[in-house]
Amino acid sequence: MIEILNGITETIDYGNSLGLRLFHNVEYEDYPKHWHVGIEIIMPLSTEYTVIVDKERYRLLTGDIMVINSGVLHGLAAPPDGERIILQFDPALLYTLKEMETLLALIPSIFYITPEREPDLYPFVKQQMDRIIHEYDEGKTFCEAVVYAALIEMFVEIGRKVTAQNMNNQREVKKGKAEKQMEYLEVIMKACNYINQHYQEKLKLEDTAATVGFSKFHFTRIFKQYMNMTFYEYLNKKRVKCAEGLLYSTEMSVTDVAMNSGFSSMSAFDRTFKSMNGCSPSEFRNAIIRGREVGGDSKE
To answer: At residue 202, what are phi and psi to the nearest 5 degrees?
Structure first.
């Protein structure tokens, strides 16, 4: 399955204009811990499959679905037989839609979906996965459009589920009425859209709060409640994702990448990037370059 791996960095060759690839993996082969820019979805079709993230081992049974977010270090352990779907796609595929950047930032490192864990969400996500598999395998006219639409619908429902969970985990939100909850959610989505548009500028918490009509202190509290991260954590996450894209797809100098991603200094860029990715921007780019040079045979 892993075609281009250097160290722990996998460079995904999607091989199509959609920026997506799907494998029916039947190999009895473990894959070492690695990461990639693409988002990965794993669903066993027969027998189990094990995903390792940090020190946790997740035993996926037939039909279970795991979403592995961009940049997450993970390994895979295969049983002697069986088949599983491995779907990978470029997050940029969804970025053209205004709210998708915020949605993808909300999703945790891994999102594990089973009939027991997510009884309300699972049937819909499973239906969309089956739809994607069928269209991708058939390869009929307009199949890319159908796959794209199914991905959007799937991640919208996942985003709504994660948002609802964040809301229900907060004592203050529980006390509020449904109308007030939705009012706050609309405000936070508006703030996130504003950040997504202006992250390359000298963006301040006070200015963003004023844009949506909240005081600094009220905005800080509500943002953390709904997004499960602070304003500056979200802003830095957005800037680092931009930097990853520039390091991956351009020959822009690391200094220029920092400036074009909204960082005010190289020290801030290096510190923030390393805290999120475990490596410096230069190490990130060098790993990608080495991966492209090395290449390899398909194991799918």
So the answer is: -80, 80
